[in-house]
Design a protein that fits this description.
heterodimer, A: about 375 residues, alpha/beta, Rossmann fold, five-stranded parallel β-sheet, two-stranded antiparallel ribbon, B: about 325 residues, 11 helices, about 40% helix, binds thiamine diphosphate, binds magnesium ion
Chain lengths: ~375, ~325
């Protein structure tokens, strides 16, 4: 049993729409969540098209199927709340308000990209939006998320860090060390395990020893944990809000495991995607558990919008993604001399400290 | 001789050693049921089963350390790192445990482990995934490191690495996995610490390891065809142990050296080679030793620029022409 009681969320567990955090939502906000989710999906589908045409390098890890997690959680952020995630980072990036243009341009490796073409798909950042990446090493971001929480507490700010990770990342030592520190030092961090059941081609059962679920491991550290259904945006919001309250009011960590699913392979290069799981399984999720479809249906049922209005939002998202792709195509590649920029702050800022001694070595 | 890929050569080496020695076990992420992220272990799980080919969760410090511990008992684990870039998660295990335990036990313990996987830039996977840590490993007495440039070398070095009684790091290259070379059908080994002249020449020594050897060979061809300069290409193959004699012999013959290195220049492998040449063959040199390294910044993602960052044929030619 999750260590969070339903009292804390104060709602009939069957209907998280009535949770306080959701009951107060205006129709405009609910439509906004739909728009955010469909924007993520259309952005990624467009990026996939160009990736397949060979216009991008490296890996492309698609978030499609998981959109309600990023949009639901990020919708709760206040001024002092921060976000950090792994390499499957496009969804969180758009959810925090990064523009499609700079994200798409980054995928194309262009100078106009959010990281000036230096990071690529796995490494999107926007500190001005409290978004700290975009990290390629599995589990590597988990102590960083803790550090954001530490920084907030140190500064006396009422905020928290949402640190996203995959179900495979829970087996890295850095995560366990982070949990201990989080509990020991009472740090306002929320670890959100996006459990999409696979780490590359390995199922949950083949990678993780556990009693009932991954979040439950938090028990060993005395950390409160919970599980959420990632196809229901209301539930994601309700449970994240409760974790964030714990962080804000008591400066305590939470581990929240969100059940979700990715439709595409681990990355686009994953040739085995239909070998380690059945096509039926993928279809079942698309047809019955798709967070965007379910949200759309819910909003139509609630008379928040009509099918036609939803379609118009979708069309606009597609257009926005196409425009972003054109922006990326038309943008310049970074100039060769920029290779040596952004390595040292002192050098970039031409300070005294940046000019004593040799910082770069030639052939 | 049949032409086989670098990937297949490694696969054959692993299969042969698993068959030969019951203590050889392959462990790593996605090595068994998925056939390896880069398919180096393709078919091995099917052929040899769960005991010999083992899928590990994403816990590099844990499973690499476990392999080192098992090797102390005489198991011969061949550990796959999906990328050598992920070795940093397991760095303490590799450097402190595999690297130092023999010394600190006064020679009572040895670790016959192989840690292998790709270590290269050039595929636009960003700075976190493009590390080439052969210089870091070589900086640690107690560890060995080899960087095969061809399928032939990959197979022979891998088999020797597995039979070696010390920890050996084998650094492969994702850009070479699909390339083919002639590989004999009969069994052979390539001893660690023996360099190979990949192209004979008289005018300048291009000294390289890993994929930089391939780049150097292309440059040598153009130098011969367009500039009448006959470059010798010396492939180090093994970084530690290092074939110093081969380096010195080549430089004594050509009197000029251009070192080609996909490492960053500062304390890169070529820095050690340059020091060796000036210490031991100073009088044989007709020109300063030159280097062509990766441009000194983290690996850039942008595909347009990343190709400039690694040593290119034109940068090599330019350097050679400067000291002709
Ligand atoms: C330290 C490290 N080891 C291995 C990898 C290669 N790798 C990248 S993603 C991944 C699977 C991670 O799965 P999970 O945490 O479930 O996240 P998901 O991809 O499902 O979002 C692996 C093995 C890596 N990037 N970093
Ligand atoms: Mg996963």
């Amino acid at each position: 049993m999750p260590s969070v009681t339903d009292d804390e969320i104060a709602v009939d567990p069957a209907d998280y729409a009535r949770a306080e955090i959701n009951a107060s939502l205006k129709p405009k906000q609910k439509i906004g969540f739909f728009r955010e989710m469909i924007r993520i999906r259309r952005f990624e589908q467009t990026s996939l098209k160009y990736y397949n045409q060979g216009m991008m390098g490296g890996f492309l890890h698609l978030y499609i199927g998981q959109e309600a997690v990023a949009v639901g959680t990020v919708s709760l952020l206040g001024k002092n709340d921060h976000v950090i995630t792994a390499y499957r980072d496009h969804g969180h990036a758009l959810a925090v308000g990064m523009g499609m243009n700079e994200c798409m341009a980054e995928l194309f490796g262009k100078a106009t990209g959010c990281s000036r073409g230096k990071g690529g798909s796995m490494h999107f950042f926007a500190p001005d939006k409290n978004y700290w990446g975009g990290h390629g090493i599995v589990g590597g971001q988990t102590p960083l998320g803790l550090g954001l929480a530490y920084g907030l507490k140190y500064k006396g700010l009422k905020g928290c860090a949402l640190c996203f990770m995959g179900d495979g990342a829970v087996n890295q030592g850095a995560y366990h060390e982070s949990l201990n520190l989080a509990a020991l030092w009472k740090l306002p961090v929320v670890y959100i395990i996006e459990n999409n059941k696979y780490s590359m081609g390995t199922t949950l059962e083949r990678s993780s020893a556990m009693r009932n679920c991954l979040a439950e491991r938090a028990d060993g550290y005395g950390i409160v944990w919970d599980i959420a259904n990632g196809e229901d945006l209301y539930e994601v919001r309700a449970k994240t809000a409760s974790a964030m309250r714990r962080a804000h009011d008591q400066s305590l960590p939470t581990v929240l495991e969100v059940d979700t699913y990715r439709y595409y392979g681990h990355s686009v290069a994953d040739a085995n995607t239909k070998k380690y799981r059945s096509p039926e399984e993928i279809e079942r999720h698309k047809n019955h558990h798709d967070p965007i479809r379910l949200w759309k249906k819910r909003l139509i049922d609630e008379c928040v919008f009509t099918e036609a209005e939803a379609d118009a939002i979708d069309e606009a998202a597609k257009e926005e993604a196409d425009t972003a792709a054109q922006f990326a195509i038309d943008s310049d590649t970074p100039a060769p001399e920029t290779i040596f920029e952004d390595v040292y702050w002192e050098v970039d800022n031409k300070t005294d400290a940046g000019s004593t001694g040799k910082h770069f070595f030639g052939d | 001789m049949p032409l086989i890929t670098y990937r297949k050569a490694l696969n054959d080496a692993l299969a042969e050693e698993i068959s030969r020695d019951e203590n050889v076990v392959i462990i790593g992420e996605e090595v068994a049921q998925y056939n390896g992220a880069y398919k180096v272990t393709e078919g091995l799980w099917q052929r040899f089963g769960d005991k010999r080919v083992v899928d590990a969760p994403i816990s590099e410090a844990g499973f690499i350390g476990m392999g080192i511990g098992a090797s102390m008992l005489g198991i011969r684990p061949v550990m796959e790192l999906m990328f050598w870039s992920f070795a940093y998660v397991a760095w303490d295990q590799i450097i402190d445990n595999a690297g130092q335990v023999r010394y600190m036990s006064g020679g009572l313990i040895n670790c016959p482990i192989v840690i292998r996987g790709p270590a290269n830039g050039g595929t636009s996977v960003g700075a976190t995934h493009s590390h080439t840590p052969e210089n870091f490993i070589a900086n640690t007495p107690g560890l060995k490191v080899v960087c095969p440039a061809t399928a032939y070398d990959a197979k022979g070095l891998m088999k020797s690495a597995i039979r070696d009684n010390d920890p050996v790091c084998v650094m492969e290259n994702t850009l070479l996995y699909g390339e083919s070379w002639e590989v004999p059908e009969e069994e052979y080994l390539i001893p660690l610490g023996v360099a190979d002249i990949k192209r004979k020449g008289t005018d300048v020594s291009l000294i390289a390891h890993g994929r930089a050897v391939i780049t150097a060979l292309k440059a040598a061809e153009i130098l011969a065809a367009e500039h009448d300069i006959h470059a010798e290409v010396l492939d180090l193959r093994s970084i530690r142990p290092l074939d110093e004699e081969a380096i010195l012999n080549s430089v004594r013959k050509t009197h000029r050296a251009v070192l080609v290195d996909e490492n960053k220049p500062f304390c890169g492998v070529s820095a050690q080679i340059a020091a060796t040449i000036q210490e031991k063959a100073f009088d044989d040199l007709d020109a300063p030793v030159q280097r062509v390294c990766a441009l000194d910044a983290p690996a850039i993602y942008s595909p347009a620029l990343e190709n400039l960052q690694l040593p290119t044929v034109s940068r090599i030619i330019e350097k050679v022409l400067q000291i002709r």
